[in-house]
User: What shape does this take?
Amino acid sequence: MRRLIVGLLCLTNAIVFSQEEPDVFTLDANYFYGTILQHNAGISHLITDHPSGVILSFNKKTYGFKPWESRYNYPDWGFSFIYQDMKDSYLGENYGVSAHYNFYFLKRNLNLRIGQGLAYTTNPYDRETNYSNIAYGSKLMSSTYLMFNYKKENLFEGLGVQAGLSLIHYSNANVKAPNSSTNTFAFNVGANYMIGYKEEPEFQPSTESKEFTEKIKYNIAFSAGVNESDIVGTGQFPFYNLAFYADKRINRKSALHVGTEAFFAQFLKELIYYYSVAYQERNIDPNTDYKRFGVFVGHELFINKMSFLTQLGYYVYYPYDFEGRVYNRIGLKRYFGDQFFGAITLKAHAAKAEAVEFGIGVRL
Assistant: This one.
């Protein structure tokens, strides 16, 4: 009998908890029509018409039952599928899947979506059959998109509408050359439907203390991947990076970084040798050191167990001039417990990507 009573109490608690935090989801569909931005003069021959497509999304709504949700005005998180007809015979069509967050402003009428994922293109560069497509050097690419909508939900029995602007970016981040990439600026319009709209709960007010302090933490991070120089056919090579940095949480959302790191990129070693042989008038020593060492500052924005990373660096050891001394990095980190994390980041020189980095690290 005692076990039965305990079991009934546990079941009752579970039911009460599920009633307090019901799952409310939304589905939305957007049609978009736009133009490819000429961010690089070399892709002008690929801008021949107005690309169009659809974005289909699944979203999980939040109501403040977890502390991080109220910090960001109760965002949604979810997954997207993007189909885009590039309206150019050389570029073909793109299919992408992304994870995203929806952030709300102005009494939840304005919605900013940030999505990141992978895309497949049907017609990448080929030296013999599609040499004009200098934008996509591989079938598999990274996909980043922003969507800014005026959005109204649950206008009639769960149905709503939205309209706004989108920016869709495709690039393989120099995993394989060529990689001029594309950016599509588009107008979008669509509809949404709320699953469980009859059981939508109230938004829970924040119960967190405004004050938050944390000691300086020290991080060790290792990242690696493969990439290729801009010279088509020089080959893909591995790279390795090792970073040491300190971070200081200034509030519940943000931390500041300062640190140093070392870069060991084999593609750069091959590029130095290539130029020393193919362009002897440049007087490049084939034994020039390809290693680089930098210092950097950065910012980390914490969203639940995820965080968004931005860093700006400067090479203090720079024996070979490649894209300039200043570099930048953006990306995502995922924490596993209080100490360990994984990361996917993009390292670039201004808007010129160098590599996608896959990393692991520890925060002490």
